[in-house]
Specification:
The protein is mainly alpha-helical and 270 residues long. Helix content is 83%, strand content 0%. The protein contains 10 helices and no strands. Helix 2 runs antiparallel to helix 3 (61-94) and helix 6 (140-168) crosses helix 7. The radius of gyration is 21 Å and the shape is globular. The protein starts with a helix and ends with a helix.
């Protein structure tokens, strides 16, 4: 091995170790902040809520409990992970921890990749905790597919939060953007159907314009309505064919969001 090869190989190994250290510190911070404990408490409370709904049901009590538990766990997991990531990076901005990290011999993409890897591990842990009570109520293969889809959904939310907080650097606008993005991605299929419907009484030109706008939004947004479907659990519908499409969407959008975050991170002056 030549001296030039050693000179290029050693910094890459050193940067990889630093990225791993940042990811490990991020996971340790989540553990110290009791995020997993909070996730367990949320799961227990939502499970009790589903049990209460089951007692109120006249028929199909088991299906109703599974549906309520799965839908509430999905929303709770998304917003728990999103708020933790946004609050954690905002605190680093305010406490000047980011400036201290950037003063070291570490490229800016290394910092972002380390933080995202740590947040990805945290998101996978939250998804695993949320899948446990679902696996008790639903068939195990359907629950595993639901949990894998939830994990992929949380990875998109983690990448989105990293992009938003590096762009806005403030908690409130970043949280508003993440919430709007998620709700719009969850309802874009319904928006497309309504924009193309003739029941709204809109003339031909206005309906075409609204349909084109909805179609453009559908191209730019991930199809979150196809992720983590409750029908997989209550109807035992085949979820395995949809997981490949979900995996491809996750890979594409995580890559795009991280690339956009790195581009915006490079142009900032600290």
């Amino acid at each position: 091995m030549t001296h030039a090869t050693v000179a290029t190989y050693m910094p890459s190994r050193r940067n990889a170790r630093r990225i791993g250290a940042i990811a490990g510190y991020t996971v340790l911070e989540a553990w110290r902040n009791r995020l997993i404990v909070l996730a367990v408490v949320a799961v227990v409370l939502l499970t009790l809520l589903s049990l209460f709904a089951r007692e109120l049901a006249v028929t199909e009590s088991g299906r109703l409990q599974t549906a309520i538990l799965a839908s509430t766990l999905r929303v709770a997991s998304v917003f728990l992970v999103a708020l933790y990531i946004l609050n954690g990076i905002t605190r680093e901005f305010n406490d000047k921890v980011l400036e201290l990290m950037l003063s070291l011999d570490l490229p800016r993409p290394g910092y972002l990749m380390g933080k995202f890897l740590g947040f990805a591990i945290v998101a996978l842990a939250v998804a695993a905790v949320a899948t446990v009570p679902v696996a008790v109520l639903a068939p195990i293969h359907a629950a595993l597919a639901w949990g894998c889809s939830l994990a992929l959904e949380l990875l998109i939310i983690a990448a989105l939060c990293v992009f938003c907080i590096t762009t806005f650097t403030q908690l409130l606008p970043a949280a508003a953007f993440v919430t709007s993005f998620y709700l719009l991605a969850r309802s874009i299929s319904a928006i497309q159907l309504m924009s193309a419907s003739t029941l709204l009484g809109v003339d031909g030109f206005g309906r075409k314009v609204s349909a084109m706008l909805a179609y453009a939004l559908a191209i730019a947004l991930p199809r979150m309505d196809a992720f983590t479907q409750t029908a997989w659990l209550v109807n035992d519908a085949g979820a395995q064919p949809a997981l490949l499409n979900i995996l491809l969407q996750t890979t594409a959008y995580v890559g795009l969001l991280l690339a956009a975050a790195m581009f915006d991170f490079y142009r900032k002056n600290f």
